[in-house]
Design goal:
about 400 residues; elongated; mainly alpha; Odorant receptor
Length: about 400
């Protein structure tokens, strides 16, 4: 099957389902329906948190905060993406134009197909990984009860896949109402997890597309020989490179506008989530059911850490790729060229001094350094919680 887009089919289906993809009929209805369901679940989640906000129930409280914060982050991400949907539409339009321009040049098309294949593989792998982790995490309590507590299991101790406080609690624990609610909550929680996987795959896809365009510019610059630069190379080709470079800068700025607020929420929420999971991970070692709780928590910890790493990697990748343009341009023989041609090269070098980056609310660049800051802060909070426990 010939690849014709950097965006994978899985991402396209996910964005259509959540009403974000342009041109979808009744997209507002899809988006509003899912956001309303998130709000309803959030209400019952925070109701549970407030009812168990006690130091004596610290372990249970922290465990409930994991899914609660995850839901809140998904709600904020979808809300931000909806508010910036015009920018998103512009990004998709520019991506289609880039693929159209590459269609007649085999080398350019080859570069973009490599990036697209990596994007598709990563998006599908992330979706599968998140699905497995979510299924283990949501069903972990049931597995533990089945293996360790089957002899003492009581209908009054029935638990939902996530910690929520429903009205008429006694009636909700009776069959078949309980089973129906469990299925509904499980399916909704999986949809929320797929939301996270879709949005993480989206930012990775967009920066890979920019990376492909930058690789094309660097390839064209490196293909210039001395004779070509000094004698035969037409000025129009230089202008084409300048225009392509301007498109890369504009595309990167659109990504920054689209994910700046999302990046800020990601840093804050992921720090709290990694902190909570780290605390649960520590206390599960001393728990009677520690083996299964440990497996459940480790997978969740890896998923949240991966989520934080992806957005930081995207910012680092974009910055490094932007620096490659200045390096490739400077390595050409621009200093031996006539002034009417060298000015285009100098212009590209000057524009390359503007660093391409994704920021967290325009307060800090998302990079590997930011990721390490998240991990260090989370470890500090874990030690405080463990001391309180």
């Amino acid at each position: 099957m010939t690849v014709t887009s950097t965006v994978s089919s899985a991402l396209t289906i996910g964005l259509r389902f959540f009403g974000i993809w342009p041109g979808v009929r009744y997209s507002t209805v899809y988006w509003f329906s899912f956001m309303s369901s998130l709000l309803i679940v959030q209400y019952f989640q925070y109701l549970y948190v407030f009812n168990h906000l006690k130091i004596s129930e610290l372990s249970n409280l922290v465990d409930s905060l994991i899914a609660t914060f995850d839901y809140s982050l998904s709600f904020l991400k979808l809300g931000s993406l909806w508010m910036h949907r015009r920018i998103f539409n512009r990004i998709l339009t520019n991506m289609d134009k880039d693929w159209f321009e590459c269609a007649n040049i085999d080398q350019h098309l080859h570069i973009m197909r490599i990036k697209a294949n990596i994007s598709h593989l990563f998006s599908n792998s992330l979706l599968i990984f998140n699905t497995i982790v979510a299924a283990l995490y949501l069903s972990g309590d049931y597995i533990i009860h089945f293996i360790f507590l089957s002899g003492h299991y009581n209908d009054t101790l029935r638990q939902f896949p996530i910690k929520i406080q429903l009205p008429f609690e006694m009636q909700c624990t009776q069959s078949p109402i309980f089973e129906i609610i469990v299925v509904i909550i499980f399916v909704h929680a999986m949809l929320q997890v797929w939301t996270i996987a879709t949005l993480n795959g989206l930012i990775f896809t967009l920066v890979l597309h920019v990376g492909g365009q930058i690789d094309i510019i660097c390839h064209e610059l490196k293909s210039f020989s001395k004779d070509t630069l000094l004698r035969y190379f037409p000025v129009s080709s230089f202008r084409m490179l300048v225009e392509r470079h301007n498109k890369v800068i504009s595309f990167s700025e659109n990504i920054e506008q689209l994910f700046s607020f999302i990046g800020l929420m990601q840093v804050v929420w992921n720090t709290l989530l990694i902190c909570c999971l780290g605390f649960v991970l520590i206390i599960s070692v001393y728990n009677e059911t520690g083996v299964f709780m440990l497996v459940k928590t480790v997978f969740a910890y890896l998923a949240i850490t991966t989520e934080a790493f992806i957005i930081c990697f995207a910012g680092e990748y974009l910055s490094l790729k932007g620096a490659l343009i200045a390096r490739a341009t400077y390595e050409t023989l621009w200093y031996d060229m006539p002034s009417d041609r060298s000015k285009y090269i100098i212009f590209i070098i000057m524009r390359s001094q503007k660093r391409l980056a994704i920021t967290a609310g325009k307060m800090m660049d998302l990079s590997f350094e930011t990721f390490m800051t998240i991990m260090k802060a989370s470890a500090s909070y874990v030690s405080v919680l463990y001391a309180m426990y």
